[in-house]
Specification:
With about 280 residues, the chain is α+β, with helices and mostly antiparallel strands. It contains 8 helices and 15 strands. It has helices at about 5-20, 40-55, 85-90, 165-170, 185-190, 205-215, 245-255, 265-275, and strands at about 30, 35-40, 60-65, 70, 75-85, 95-105, 105-115, 120-125, 130, 135, 150, 175-180, 195-200, 220-225, 235-240. The radius of gyration is 19 Å and the shape is globular. The protein starts with a helix and ends with a helix. The structure holds D-MYO-inositol-1-phosphate and calcium ion (2 copies).
Amino acid sequence: MSSLLSFIQPLAREAGALLMSHFGKVEYTYKGDVDLVTVADKQAEALIVERIKKQFPDHGIMGEEGARANAGSEYVWYIDPLDGTTNFAHGYPVFCVSIGLEHKGKRVAGAIYDPTRDELFSAEAGHGAELDGKRIHVSKTDNLGEALVATGFPTKKRHKNPNIHFYHHITMRTHGIRRGGSAALDLAYVACGRYDAYWEFILNPWDTAAGVLLVEEAGGKVTGVYNTPFEIVSREVVATNGVLHPGLTKELQNVFENKSIDDLPDLRAVAFKESH
Ligand code: IPD
Ligand code: CA
Ligand code: CA
């Protein structure tokens, strides 16, 4: 294992253990619309930042809860100390720690740790992706109609989000959509083949830094809806097993361009028809 991974992996586990010590007994406050934050988010970020600063004092840091260090450094750490805070705050056990590292704008290493399942996903550029030390690969599903797909909805400015149209369109063309509430885990699940694809709009660098590298190293593809290359500042993400990329991006483009959008059914008419 490289020295980078041997630093990141135990760090993600340590932060995950800290999250678990608060899980089920934590109060939350609001930092936006329905954007929650807990003491666990803050303590986990403080722990991760402290460890990084000790080991790599010159590296840049960008953490969701406000940590910033060494702007302009060639190396930048993107930290989501608790991805899935809404789940966490409600006692719903789907959340993780996400830590990603870039060097000169290139993704080099990352880890996503789910402490509820004790699952550690990690990847290093050029060396593949792993789950608990075993190599993982994206799925082989080659038909969108047989795909299990994930998406998410933003916690800030949710009234401005049109994703429900995309949700409706894609759910009619796949085995279904899951909305787990943790973007980093969604990406990790594409990497290990549990999901065949995932898309989301309005994400932040700490949501995607580690997960995008995982998907790429597991043989998948990550771009924007119009196939623009993914960069850390990209806010939209389409991540697939590669084979499904043309099909899924085409369908998402159709919605953007107002082509072939299915009308939402009239619920009362459907319910009436089916019960009579
Ligand atoms: C959120 C989760 C969620 C996604 C939101 C993110 P947070 O992150 O990843 O799945 O839909 O866009 O903001 O706030 O729990 O770290
Ligand atoms: Ca997040
Ligand atoms: Ca977070």
